[in-house]
Amino acid sequence: MNDLFYKAYEDRHRGSRELILSRLRAYIPFLKPLAALYQPADAIDLGCGRGEWLELLGKAGFEATGADLDEGMLAECRARGLNAQRADALDVLRAMPDNSKALVSAFHVVEHMPFNEVRLLVQEGLRVLKPGGLLILETPNSENLMVGAYEFYKDPSHTRPVPWELLQFVVEHAGFQRNVIMRLQERPELRSGLNIRLINVLKDVSPDYAVVAQKNAGSETLSVFDHAFSFNYGLSLESLAQRYDSQINNRIAEAKLAVERTDARQAQDLQQAYGRIAQLEERLARLEGQVHAVFSSRSWRVTAPLRFVVSGLVRIKTAVRASRFVSGSKRRIKSGLRRLGQTVQRQPHLRQAALDILNRMPGLKRRLHGIVYAAGDTTVVTQTEREPEYLGPRATQIYTELRKIMGRETS
């Protein structure tokens, strides 16, 4: 594509220059010992794009050359003073002599090529590299399900994803001494013990990967690269899925343990409740036995009359406290006096007897402070000017009722 379309598309979707440079620093553990091994350290970058990798190689001490077919990309490289030419990747490699480069790299190139050309690129790279030299091939990681199913096809020049197992086998089959898979650009926080969700498994596996392969050399030369080749890079689908499964299993185990603890507490509480019920039943049985013994005793039968009397007294006392007994007594006294008066009025001989009783009580007459008249066989007692103060309430009531009866008789 020579109409600047591809460069414009890359500028929008690949990320800023600063972002790409920050991602490329992941390769520094390989660059430092390689730059120290060869002076000068020659490098060729196939599909150099905007030149971020060429810029980093220059800062790391390499004499780097780039090749690309897109004029927009090459124009930006030249504007930055980077050495880049318009050429096909395989043509460039074929034109180079054996053992002439310390580094051959191709970032996001193999996914644009037919598979047979990928194999040729790897073979030519091995031929061009010096002993101990490195081949770096970076490409989208189809192990990331989102990349393999969607992100990969956002680039119209992509042909097909290249799984890491396939590309690794290509370099091994070509004859490289050793290689390592670098998974790249994953979210840093997922490298720690962050809880993994299902969405992380689906989309947060390292979105890119690289095969870094090394040409055979003496053991002393290879040993300085041992640390870089032994490191575990990035996040694989398997590792994220295992972490997710482990978290789920831990949560299930915690839930089961919580249920078991709850069941154990409930069983303990139930056992304690049963024990308490048994104690209460035992106590109730003892009380029932004691009550039965009391009811069956001779003393209970002998004291039955006394209990009856005491019970009646208690009821009377209760009624008195509630003022029912006093008020009831008053009503009964008044009613009795009325009946007595009515009887006395109807019976002449009773009326005469009542008068005789009053005449035989001179002390009562003196204390009445009234006037007593005798008329033949009839005695009339009139209302005193004041009520007698020496009589109690009940005597006063009786006196008043009798006086009313006598008054009606004489009238």
Keywords summarizing the entry:
single chain, 411 residues, two-stranded antiparallel sheet, 2 domains, alpha/beta, Rossmann fold, 14% strand, seven-stranded mixed beta sheet, rod-shaped
Give the overall pLDDT as a whole number.
Answer: 83
Q: Point out poorly predicted stretches.
A: 365-387
Specify the biggest β-sheet. 7 strands, mixed
**CA-atom Rg in angstroms:** 61 Å
Class by alpha and beta content:
alpha/beta
CATH architecture of the largest domain: 3-Layer(aba) Sandwich
* Binned strand content: 5-15%
The number of helical elements comes to 19
CATH superfamily of the largest domain: Vaccinia Virus protein VP39
Name the helicity range.
55-70%
Helix and strand pattern: HHHEHEHEHEHEHHEHEHHHHHHHHEEH
In the CATH scheme, what's the topology name of the largest domain? Rossmann fold
How many domains make up the coordinates?
2
Number of strands: 9
CATH class of the largest domain: Alpha Beta
N-to-C span: 150 Å
Shape: rod-shaped
Q: Describe it for me?
A:
This protein has 411 residues and is of the alpha/beta class. The protein folds into two domains: 5-235, Vaccinia Virus protein VP39 (Rossmann fold, 3-Layer(aba) Sandwich), CATH 3.40.50.150; 321-410, no CATH class. The protein is built from 19 helices and nine strands. Helix 16 packs across helix 17 and helix 16 (324-346) packs parallel to helix 19 (393-410). The longest helix is centred in the middle third of the chain and has 60 residues, at 237-296. It is rod-shaped and about 170 Å long. Mean pLDDT is 83; it is low at 365-387.
